[in-house]
Amino acid sequence: MGLSRNLDENIAYLQKALPLGRSFDLINRPLNLGRTRAFFLGVNGFCQTQVLQQIFSDLQSPVYMLDDTVEDIASYLNSRIGYAQASLCGSWETILRNVLSGPSVLFIDGFDQAILLDVRTYPTRSIAEPDLEKVTKGSRDGFVETLLLNANLIRRRERSPRLCFAMHSVGTESHTDVALAYLEDRVDTALLERLSETIDGLRIASLTMGAKSLEELILPKRFWNPLPSIQMTERPDVACSYLSEGHILILVDNSPLVLILPGTIFQFTQSPEDYYNSPAVGTYFRLVRFFCIPVSLLLMPAFLLLAGHYQELAVAWELLSEPISLQRIFFYVLAVEFLLDLFKYASSLSSGKFSGSLSLVSGLIIGDIAVNLHWAIPEVLFYAAVTMLASLSINGTDFGNGLRIYRIFMILCTYFWGLAGFLTGLVLILCSVATTPTFAGFSYLWPLFPFNRKALGRLLFRTPTPKAQPPEVWSRGKIKRQQKKR
Q1: For 435, phi and psi rounded to 5 degrees?
Q2: pLDDT for the residue numbered 356
Q3: For residue 355, what pLDDT band results from cuts at 50, 70 and 90?
Q4: Burial 298-324 (b: 16+ CB within 10 A, else e)
Q5: Are 188 and 473 spatial neighbours (Cβ–Cβ below 8 Å)?
Q6: What angle do the packed helices 397-434 and 279-304 form, to 10 degrees?
Q7: Given a cut of 60, is residue 11 above it in pLDDT?
């Protein structure tokens, strides 16, 4: 629907479309540009008051209004408004979406177009290092909840003229800004086109949880695939490293998380800490993290298998001090798993002021009393603690949480069916990992399958900086065609 040339009709439409006079944050006032009537509308808190004051001071200056009336709005915009981010618009839908996003609008009597003034500013927190992706050396900045600032952090590091931010809008009510960042000379154009079509085709009222909601919308998952298939990061240096390798970044306004596509399982084993150490040290700690994956998954089920079903071997190998029934071992394992998960969840949501108290309560009081009350035994506490350390060493909380679901599943299979259950559960987990859905149908196990020796070597070993980035984008196979929903 287009604007009217009559200013009173436009004001009447605004009063029906917006709660003018009822919502305190919608600021509006009539203006006189010489003898021409005008009407201003904006959102309080989104407008830079000093910039607007200078613009209106110039527009109402007698020197500017020698002609006394506005005859041509396009010429008026080009000659009288010196602000850079100003444009004309004649669509109500576009005007309302822009006003509620931050820009202000100026209606002038006699014209079916309005002037959009992008003088917005958003309340934002200061840039700080992400808590979940800390490094001992390196940059200390991280993404924030403002999309423009996040784009600036990327542009500051990647000053390529081929860097592009393609803007999209998601949500019939929220109209959340979503930007796709990519290098035009390195991106897979078919993947970019497929992603753009998917985002534009989303039918949802709003992105309530920001980037996480968008992830679940563009890539629905099944309950038997708990591992993440899209990597998220809050570090600009990590995002730019993937950008240089041909990946696509998805930036969502109001969210500090940046999505990285395409995604594979090996991306969740990488850490920026590797590249702030020497190649030998970085390789060592990377291999340690790889080793932590099977330890986190298999240590507790293997202990339950030996201690519960093969107690003679467990006692002979000194895994147990004395034989204990299978039911009691199973109870101990589940109780300790629950307590450690409870402690981890409570510590992640509690203030840093209470971290010392939580450590004291969990380590001394709960652990000691649990043994005295026969709710646990020292052997189970030890193996559970090793499992927890291995899980915390894995870079990526989503990946560690997925392994926790697999581990509990293997514990149940081992308890009910012994060695056969242990092996069957392991096979089912491998099948679940292999069938984890990825966007555009890429293999979740690339470069292991399809096999790419050079790419796999770069992932397993920390290579020197001159060889860290490939000379060209790795081929990941063909993109599956998108099935149209009926």
Answers
A1: -100, 10
A2: 53
A3: low
A4: bbbbbbbbbbbbebeebbeeebbeeeb
A5: yes
A6: 70
A7: yes
The answer to whether 111 and 33 have CB atoms below 8 angstroms apart is no
The model's pLDDT over 51-95, given as tens digits with 9 standing for 90+, comes to 888 888 887 777 665 567 888 899 888 888 888 889 999 999 999
- Hey, where are the domains in the chain? 7-117, 131-263, 275-440
Q: How far apart are CA 420 and CA 102, in angstroms?
A: 61
Residue 471 CA to residue 125 CA, distance in Å, equals 38
pLDDT tens-digit readout, 257-305? 999 999 899 888 888 888 888 889 989 999 999 999 999 999 999 999 9
The span from the CA of 241 to the CA of 246, in Å, is: 9
- The span from the CA of 454 to the CA of 387, in Å, is 32
Token pair for 463: 């290579």
Query: What is the rounded CA–CA span in Å between residue 138 and residue 26?
Result: 43
- Tell me if 52 sits within 8 A of 46, measured CB to CB: no
Residues 6 or more apart whose CB falls under 8 angstroms from that of 106 comprise 31, 38, 39, 40, 114, 115, 117
**87, 73 Cβ separation under 8 angstroms:** no
Per-residue pLDDT band for 483 (boundaries 50, 70, 90) equals low
How high does pLDDT run on average in the chain? 87
CA angle 7-13-15, nearest 5°?
105
Residue type, 256: P
